[in-house]
Design goal:
This protein has about 120 residues and is an all-alpha fold. It has one domain. It contains seven helices and no strands. The protein is globular, with a radius of gyration of 14 Å. The termini are far apart.
Length: about 120
C-alpha cells in the first residue's frame, strides 16, 4: 500500500520538508548547523553559496539547496571530508541533495547539472 510507506522508503513525497527528507535518509538534522563558520573556510571558487549557507538553505527547506552551483562545485571537498562542529555529516547531506536534485532534474541556477550534460 502506497500510503503505508514511510518517508525513508518514499523520499520524494510531494510537499515533504527537505529537512525531513534529509533526516529520514541520512539521519542528519541540518537544523543543528549554527553557521559557526567551521566549514566556511572551505573554498568553493565555482560555488554560489558557502557550505554553511547550503546547510542553512536545506534547514529552511529553501529550493536554493537543490538549485545552487555549490552542490556540484563541492566534489573536491567531499572527497576530503568537511568538518562540522555541530556533528552534522555534511558530506552525507550534500550527497543526498545531489541525488534529490538529479532525481528532480533540477539544474543549478545559471548553469546546468554537469552530470546531466555528460549524458547528452
Amino acid at each position: 500500500m502506497e500510503e503505508d510507506r514511510t518517508l525513508a522508503e518514499h523520499p520524494f513525497s510531494p510537499g515533504a520538508p527537505l529537512r525531513s527528507i534529509i533526516l529520514a535518509q541520512t539521519g542528519q538534522d541540518v537544523r543543528l548547523c549554527a553557521r559557526c563558520s567551521a566549514c566556511e573556510a572551505d573554498n568553493l571558487p565555482h560555488g554560489d553559496l558557502s557550505v554553511g549557507e547550503l546547510m542553512q538553505a536545506a534547514a529552511r527547506d529553501s529550493p536554493q539547496a537543490l538549485t545552487c552551483k555549490t552542490l556540484w562545485a563541492a566534489e573536491a571537498l567531499l572527497s576530503q571530508g568537511i568538518k562540522c562542529q555541530a556533528g552534522v555529516d555534511v558530506v552525507a547531506v550534500i550527497r543526498l541533495l545531489q541525488k534529490l536534485a538529479k532525481a528532480g532534474r533540477v539544474a543549478p541556477q545559471g548553469g546546468s547539472n554537469p552530470k546531466e550534460e555528460d549524458r547528452r
